[in-house]
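Lab notebook: predicted structure, single chain.

Context: the supervisor wants predicted structures on file for every construct in the current expression panel, including those that have not yet been purified. This is the next one on the list. No modifications to the sequence; it matches the entry in the shared construct table.
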Amino acid sequence: MTPWKILCDFDGTISVEDVIDSLLDRFGRPGWETLEQDWRAGRIGSRECMTGQVELLDMSRDQLDHHLDGLWIDHAFPAFVAKTRELGMPIRVVSDGLDYAIHKILGRYGLDDLPLAANHLSPAPPPRQWQLTSPFQAEGCRSGTCKCACVAQARASGAKTLLIGDGASDFCAADRVDFVFAKHRLIEHCRAAGIPYVPITGFEDALELLPRLLDGSLVAEHVRHEPAVANAH
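Prediction complete. Output recorded below exactly as produced.
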């Protein structure tokens, strides 16, 4: 049986809310909304957007940590991770978000040892200033973390790949994996692009679906029904 490797988004997928959005709402100086509008309009990529937005954050480390202590993850995610480990399915968090925040939040659940690809948040020289670097960017990709490159790494061993995600940062990677568990905007993208997927509301659903993913019935069911959907248009 070909093993599966799992690539899982963080903000809005593992976490209940988007971390950077919550930080900007609370600590962002004027101007971050304009960057957000430029990104949504496609004028800039997410890496340029987030780099600029992080530079507009005005907070101390204590304020940052206190804020992160109030952010939560999907209640079923720890059980999902435990099951994937039991089944020998490696899981990697791939995020266009902030590594410091992800480690801090997952650490409360004993999950900060999960492999992670994300943007690096670090203090800037002036007090209360921050800066963003993107160690997982790729040439020709405007995202801070190139999730497509992460998929290519996962596939290099011959493993099948499952993406779990919810939004625009997952669109490109969804085109390159073998199957998708999709939330929110990613559902519409997969449906429109004909990408093999199932919709989930959270990790309770994902946990229930794992056995059918492993025995092949989940993917087979999608393939069996896809031609009928395609011929209907």
